């Protein structure tokens, strides 16, 4: 008999607010699931007692035979997606060297997808920044993500964030939408381009799940001396993330007839 269980994995943080916001989003998704499906939230690092192996062990101790893994990361260009997939045995070798070892598990692994260009996340992004818009016909929304310095990973980052930017543009009604990355750094040049070539007000939307160094320091430091519109708000907390998690779980269950 197949017994499904869910393991949501996100990046670790010493910030208890980040851990709490992820837990809250997962709890909201659980409330919509069929009753009795065990679910664990685990973290790649830092959060003691709640690392990935801890989550696997707790689920398997409940008899889980089919492990639905939901990677709560914004891009398939993240090196963390690569190393986690490798550690779960989803690929023979990682594309980039990792310290992660294969996890101990006996359950069948059903590995989900990161956020990339999901339409629910496009709604979430626009909902976070729409209050900043004053003159849509003269504004551009610039979606800013982490990016990557590694070949292959960078291309996946660009593909996902470009498509996501297009989705947000369709929702927003703004004149334009674009994206920039911190790695390799294109944030300042993109803001200057839209201001000088199109006369646009630039609304910055950070594509980061949690507030922290990147939203509070990295992005503003690259834009010193420029005019732009920015709230600094990360994606979480937001109720639509729970919907994204729920959709991921249900889609896997339907496809595998669980």
TrEMBL record:
Gene Ontology MF terms in the entry: lyase activity; metal ion binding
Record keywords: Lyase, Metal-binding
Annotated PANTHER family: SIROHYDROCHLORIN FERROCHELATASE, CHLOROPLASTIC
Protein name in UniProt: Cobalamin biosynthesis protein CbiX
Origin organism lineage: Bacteria, Bacillati, Bacillota, Bacilli, Bacillales
């Amino acid at each position: 008999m197949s017994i499904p269980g869910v393991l949501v994995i996100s990046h670790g943080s010493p910030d208890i607010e980040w851990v709490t916001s992820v837990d809250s989003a997962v709890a909201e998704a659980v409330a919509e699931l069929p009753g009795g499906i065990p679910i664990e939230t685990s973290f790649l690092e830092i959060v003691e007692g709640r690392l990935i192996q801890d989550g696997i062990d707790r689920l398997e101790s409940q008899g889980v035979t089919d492990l639905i893994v939901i990677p709560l990361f914004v891009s398939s260009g993240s090196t963390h997606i690569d190393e986690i997939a490798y550690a779960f045995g989803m690929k023979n070798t990682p594309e980039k060297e990792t310290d992660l070892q294969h996890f101990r598990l006996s359950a069948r692994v059903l590995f989900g997808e990161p956020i990339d260009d999901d339409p629910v996340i496009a709604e979430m992004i626009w909902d976070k920044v729409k209050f900043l818009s004053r003159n849509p016909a003269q504004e551009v929304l610039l979606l800013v993500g982490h990016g990557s310095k590694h070949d292959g990973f960078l291309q996946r980052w660009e593909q996902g964030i470009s498509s996501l930017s297009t989705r947000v543009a369709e929702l927003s009604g703004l004149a334009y939408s674009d994206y920039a990355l911190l790695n390799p750094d294109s944030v300042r040049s993109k803001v200057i381009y839209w201001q000088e070539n199109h006369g646009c007000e630039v609304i910055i939307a950070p594509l980061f799940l949690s507030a922290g160094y990147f939203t509070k320091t990295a992005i503003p430091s690259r834009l010193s001396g420029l005019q732009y519109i920015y709230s600094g708000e990360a994606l979480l907390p937001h109720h639509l993330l729970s919907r994204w998690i729920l959709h991921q779980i249900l889609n896997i269950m339907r496809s595998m007839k669980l």
